[in-house]
Specification:
The protein has 319 residues and is α/β, with parallel strands linked by helices. Helix content is 44%, strand content 17%. The strands form three sheets. It has a seven-stranded parallel sheet, with helices on both faces. A three-stranded mixed sheet has the order 7-9-11. The protein is globular, with a radius of gyration of 19 Å.
Length: 319
């Protein structure tokens, strides 16, 4: 039976793929975003399915705005992805906390006031900070090294308290380096931008180095949807794990597909562990997809190439 979902931040990268996952299987989706630029949705969803999406102009810093949207949609499931990323939170921590912390409290409170069954929200691996040692699991006490990570940690705490106080079920998901079509902003977007540059024949310099945990965006979206549909009662938090790979090997995979790609990389490692232990979510949801890095890069480059051939590839992020 088709269900109704409200997706905040659906005009962003992960949001576009969550929306695609839901509309492709026939569910009703309401999109709540402060932006009006649909380019990422256009890039990943076929027009017939995209025509079935309902748009709500919502700024989550307003509690009334998100409450109205949940009520109008009569949403039973909220997938909350709206947020500002690491560079924006660093540039303006007050604005970052308004959107990421106050905005998330607004979403959780509005959901608790409604008939919503569950909120699944984007936390982040940034809650850990650099975390010495091997792939941390969810019990590892994080010491975030960015405002963004501190804000995400606060969201997990607020979701736990709102569950205790008001009984709202929730799941926080901690992705790390999500890649794929639509990933064009944020600290770890450079590998995807390098794939796009390789397609259009432009040189690209990736601004960080070292090993990070690559998660294909379609798999990430599937994890959000599975949790929205099937999580057990409670206030859960799950890590995501994909493929933990050194930057030189990522560049080599891109060059296998585009041998003339001019990709450089350098700069610091990112203040996040190079791998997460993602075994808890896989134990809870055993059918989650797990696309290999080679396949994910191939699918991304093929989609970029198809959009480029149709004159529809947005390249503003390369300028
Ligand atoms: N992409 C990753 O690798 C990654 C990793 C860890 C966590 N996350 C988290 O996952 C979520 C989605 O990531 P993404 O890569 O799709 O981000 P994105 O930057 O592509 O999209 C974020 C969306 O949020 C919207 N937004 C911003 N402020 C808003 C506001 N006040 N009201 C309503 N909408 C607002 C933006 O318009 C945008 O469409 C974010 O919360 C992000 O912090 C992402």
């Amino acid at each position: 039976m088709a269900r109704t979902y409200l997706v905040t931040g659906a005009l962003g990268c992960i949001g576009a793929w969550v929306t695609k996952t839901l509309v492709d299987r026939g569910d009703e989706v309401w999109v709540a975003d402060v932006d009006t630029d649909h380019r990422r949705l256009d890039a990943v969803i076929e027009p017939d399915n995209l025509a079935r999406v309902t748009y709500e102009d919502v700024d989550i810093t307003s509690g009334d705005g998100i409450r109205r949207a949940i009520d109008r949609a009569d949403a039973r499931h909220v997938i909350h992805l709206a947020g500002l990323q690491v560079p924006a939170c660093k540039a303006d921590p007050a604005a970052g906390s308004m959107v990421n912390v106050v905005g998330t409290v607004n979403v959780l409170q509005a959901a608790a006031d409604s008939d919503c069954e569950r909120v699944v929200y984007a936390s982040s691996a940034a809650v850990y900070g650099s975390a010495d040692g091997d792939a941390p699991d969810e019990k590892w006490p994080g010491t975030p090294e960015t405002h963004y990570g501190v804000f995400k940690q606060a969201n997990e705490g607020n979701a736990r308290v709102i569950h205790a106080d008001r009984g709202l079920d929730s799941v926080g998901i901690r992705p790390l380096t999500v890649y794929g079509v639509g990933r064009d902003q944020g600290l770890t977007s450079d590998p995807t931008r390098a794939m796009k540059a390789a397609v259009v024949g432009r040189p690209f310099a990736i601004g960080f180095s070292g090993t990070t945990d690559y998660q294909y965006v379609a798999d990430t979206a599937a994890a959000f949807v599975a949790c929205a549909d099937r999580a057990s009662p409670g206030a859960h938090v799950y890590n995501l794990h994909g493929a933990s790979v050194e930057m030189a090997d990522v560049v080599a995979l891109i060059r296998e597909l585009r041998p003339s790609a001019e990709i450089d990389f350098g700069g610091p490692t990112i203040p996040i562990p190079p791998a997460l232990d993602g075994s808890s979510i896989r134990a809870a949801f055993q059918d989650l997809p797990s696309t290999s890095l080679a396949d994910g890069i191939r699918q991304t480059i093929e989609r970029f190439q198809a959009l480029h051939d149709q004159g529809r590839l947005d390249t503003h992020d390369l300028d």
